[in-house]
Protein: Lipopolysaccharide assembly protein A domain-containing protein
Amino acid sequence: MRYIRYAFLGVLAIVLVAIAMANRSMVELTLLPPDIATLLEFQQTLSLPLFLVFFGGILFGLLIGFFWEWLREHKHRAAASERKAEVRKLERELKKTQAERDKDKDEVLAILDQSA
Structure:
């Protein structure tokens, strides 16, 4: 299975390098459309190779997706945390109840009851 993963990563690296080599031409990115930029008197441009724009867009989309999913799953993490706290509370209560039940018993019999 490890070799399949390495082969996949190798093929992926070759494909990404091929895309980068095919899209080396420079493109100019502008922050705002020209009409809005003149209205606000603010224009920011940046020249980058096209493959950086492409890979940056993919990375930005992945980060937004991961963050959105993390926010969406908050209720599940909170419910799991509540259940874990309830289980700990019930385990403490069970140990306390067993200790009260076994306080008048012989120690050997109490240990045997706990193992069963």
